[in-house]
């Protein structure tokens, strides 16, 4: 071989190696090729995918015959499956595909393939993309949209179909079976013929993987693209317009899923513009969709600039509507009553709506949790919400049980996650943000899974070679980082129940000082922390806004009493004196300082752990995460310094001399976070 050939070969091998670990393969990397035979009498696109996955990923005994068969086995629900040795049984073909992914996962993790019966907690497990037709993504931190490219989003990049296929495959591998392709702040244009043609292409590409396609719709579409004078949901012409539009969609896309609607929220149009209710609006669309088995996901993220505590508003607006929605409507409720904060109590709507199905909306993209610059594993936050007891029907009425059909019969159950996916090569910007996509899927499939188990699975599949998948030290180092990361973020951003101290607009850095008479108060920070010379926190007890009344007993009384309110929610529900003594024995001010400092120290600890992994993790992903941890450390320091120096103006106390001093001046941080390129 001449030298040139050798050099080229080295380059190719080098590039292939590099590619193999550029994150594109997500948790599906490192598939092996032991021979396997598949026996089935089924044939379809989906079955072909299942067979291919087995052939490309099998790592069991050579020449095993894996059997795939359909059965009406009573233990199986929806797309659930069973695995026994080399046999997968499901009621549907998609169920068989899910069974294959589970089989390969179990093999990879060296777990037994016996007596596995797995049914989904929620029937619909849906990603919400906040993708705009111009390709940008609201709160997206991993590049542009993978769906909407070029002028009006209508172009196709050469790799579009491949990307959508890989996207669908990744989702199917964790049980996600639906996707909303566009932002809830929806452009009416998405319902134009040209856009629907594109939606059809996407829908056809992802369907074999079991993914249904949904769209966010703008309530004013009949006016904006239909030429009507009104969008009043009780107007017959408007109703007809939606009926026709829905019929047009189903003609193009027979397995279309339905609509997601943000109405009368943050300036979006809605039925209230015409003196109608959410029920009028949702039912109008439901009626149009019902002949095709389509659904309406109607969001309850509503609040107005009234003197009423913002966290009470969704409940007040939606509870009176309970039981009035058609049976193909589901109300989509964010996990907390405010807005995807690092820690919120669960939304009281979960424990209140008894006759209306509710679907939790979780945010996978890290709008308020450090974007894709910070390593924050979100599963513990979601687990905390799903396992919270609402006491709706007595003890044990967890958010999970209130939403997954356990406590109330519903035509269907669902859960949504706001996606963190973009056109970046590794899909999510931060390698560890892939874990949040993964965890959402796993929890949507099984809402009682534990975050540590999910982390364990993800780490082994993402970082280890199959042979080394038992490398306990590596797994432990990474798992420790992940499992502490959400609590660390709470500590350095908003400990003890503080919330929404974010800089305006970008929501990345701190601005507890933020106030502006020109904008609505509930978009400022001071509205939420209410710091004064006496203390800190929002009084939502019976002596304050009385938000506690929206929770069921005995939780209501527990939250209402400053002495029994869990400390992680203390400043959410109470205005607490600076010298109030906490369980640690420290008073509020001292504890606050310690928590902020702890958060920063935790991130420094993550750095130390990560650096130990240099020999184990491929260079690209190692250095990417190492560099991002440095940023996270700097930014945690900024959070700590900003919040302590600002709140100190009210507490008028020393920062305890046992903790490290701030290293920034407050004025400098104020300036820094104002600048557009701070983040
Ligand atoms: O969290 C807020 C975001 C908005 C978002 C809105 C919503 C899509 O800051 O960007 O809009 O919530 O959920 O509708």
What does this structure look like?
Helix 7 (236-252) crosses helix 8 (278-289) and helix 14 packs antiparallel against helix 18 (588-611). 38% of the residues lie in helices and 10% in strands. Strand 3 (81-84) and strand 4 (87-90) form a beta hairpin. The longest helix has 33 residues, at 619-651. It is of the alpha/beta class and 679 residues long. Residues 5-19 have low confidence and may be disordered. The protein contains 20 helices and 15 strands. The strands form 3 sheets. Strands 6-7-8-9-10-11-12-13 form an 8-stranded parallel beta barrel. Strands 1-2-4-3-5 form a 5-stranded mixed β-sheet, with helices on one face. The radius of gyration is 25 Å and the shape is globular. 4-O-methyl-beta-D-glucopyranuronic acid binds next to loops.
Radius of gyration: 25 Å
Strand content: 5-15%
Large-scale geometry: globular
Widest sheet, order of strands: 6-7-8-9-10-11-12-13
Pick out its properties.
679 residues; alpha/beta; 8-stranded parallel β-barrel; 5-stranded mixed β-sheet; 15 strands; globular; binds 4-O-methyl-beta-D-glucopyranuronic acid
């Amino acid at each position: 071989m001449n030298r040139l050939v050798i050099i080229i070969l080295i380059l190719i091998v080098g590039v292939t190696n590099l590619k193999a670990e550029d994150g594109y393969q997500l948790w599906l990397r490192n598939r092996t090729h032991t021979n396997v035979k598949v026996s089935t009498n089924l044939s379809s696109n989906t079955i072909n995918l299942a067979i291919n996955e087995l052939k490309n990923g099998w790592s069991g005994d050579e020449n095993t015959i894996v059997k795939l068969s359909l059965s009406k086995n009573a233990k199986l629900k929806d797309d659930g499956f069973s695995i026994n040795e080399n046999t997968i049984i499901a009621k549907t073909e998609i169920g068989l595909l899910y069974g294959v992914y589970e089989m390969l996962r179990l093999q990879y993790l060296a777990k037994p393939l016996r007596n596995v019966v797995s049914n989904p907690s929620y029937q619909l497990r849906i990603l919400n993309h906040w993708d705009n037709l111009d390709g940008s993504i609201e709160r997206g931190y991993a590049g542009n949209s993978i769906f909407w490219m070029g002028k009006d989003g209508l172009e196709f990049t050469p790799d579009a179909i491949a990307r959508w296929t890989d996207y669908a495959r990744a989702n199917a591998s964790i049980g996600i079976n639906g996707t909303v392709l566009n932002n809830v702040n929806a452009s009416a244009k998405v319902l134009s013929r040209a856009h629907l043609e594109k939606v059809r292409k996407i829908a056809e590409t992802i369907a074999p993987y079991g993914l249904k396609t949904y769209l966010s719709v703008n309530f004013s579409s009949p006016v904006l693209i239909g030429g009507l004078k009104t969008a009043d949901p009780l107007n017959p012409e408007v109703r007809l317009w939606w009926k026709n539009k829905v019929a047009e969609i189903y003609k193009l896309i027979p397995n279309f899923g339905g609509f997601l609607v943000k109405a009368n929220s943050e300036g979006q149009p809605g039925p209230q513009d015409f003196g109608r209710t959410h029920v009028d609006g949702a039912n109008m669309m439901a009626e149009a969709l019902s002949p095709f088995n389509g659904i309406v996901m109607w969001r309850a993220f509503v609040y107005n600039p009234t003197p009423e505590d913002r966290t009470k508003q969704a409940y007040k607006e939606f509870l009176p509507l309970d039981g009035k929605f058609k049976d193909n409507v589901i109300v989509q409720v964010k996990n907390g009553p405010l807005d995807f904060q690092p820690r919120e109590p669960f939304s009281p709507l979960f424990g209140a709506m008894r006759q209306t199905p509710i679907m939790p909306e979780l945010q996978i993209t890290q709008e308020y949790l450090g974007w894709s610059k910070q390593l924050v594993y979100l599963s513990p936050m979601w687990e905390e919400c799903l396992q919270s007891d609402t006491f709706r029907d007595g003890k044990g009425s967890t958010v999970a049980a209130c939403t997954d059909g356990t406590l109330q019969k519903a035509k269907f159950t669902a859960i949504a996650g706001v996606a963190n996916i973009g056109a970046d090569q590794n899909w999510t910007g931060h390698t560890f943000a892939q874990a949040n996509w993964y965890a959402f899927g796993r929890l949507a499939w099984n809402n009682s899974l534990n975050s540590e188990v999910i982390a364990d699975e993800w780490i082994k599949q993402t970082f280890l070679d199959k042979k080394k998948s038992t490398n306990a030290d590596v797994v432990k180092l990474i798992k420790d980082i992940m499992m502490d990361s959400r609590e660390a973020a709470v500590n350095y951003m908003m400990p003890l129940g503080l919330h929404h101290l974010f800089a305006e607009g970008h929501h990345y850095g701190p601005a507890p000082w933020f106030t502006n008479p020109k904008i609505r108060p509930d978009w400022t920070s001071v509205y939420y922390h209410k710091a004064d010379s006496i203390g800190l926190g929002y009084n939502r007890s019976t002596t304050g806004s009385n938000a506690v009344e929206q929770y069921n007993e005995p939780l209501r009384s527990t939250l209402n009493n400053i002495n029994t309110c869990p400390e992680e929610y203390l400043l959410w529900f109470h205005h607490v004196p600076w010298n109030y003594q906490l369980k640690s024995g420290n008073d509020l001010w001292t504890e606050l300082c310690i928590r902020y400092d702890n958060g920063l120290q935790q991130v420094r600890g993550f750095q130390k752990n990560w650096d130990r992994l240099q020999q184990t993790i491929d260079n690209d992903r190692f250095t990417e995460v190492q560099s991002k941890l440095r940023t996270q450390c700097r930014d945690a320091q900024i959070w700590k310094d900003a919040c302590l120096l600002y709140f100190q103006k009210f507490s008028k106390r020393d920062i305890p001399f046992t903790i490290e001093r701030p290293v920034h001046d407050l004025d400098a941080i104020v300036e820094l976070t104002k600048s557009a390129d701070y983040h």
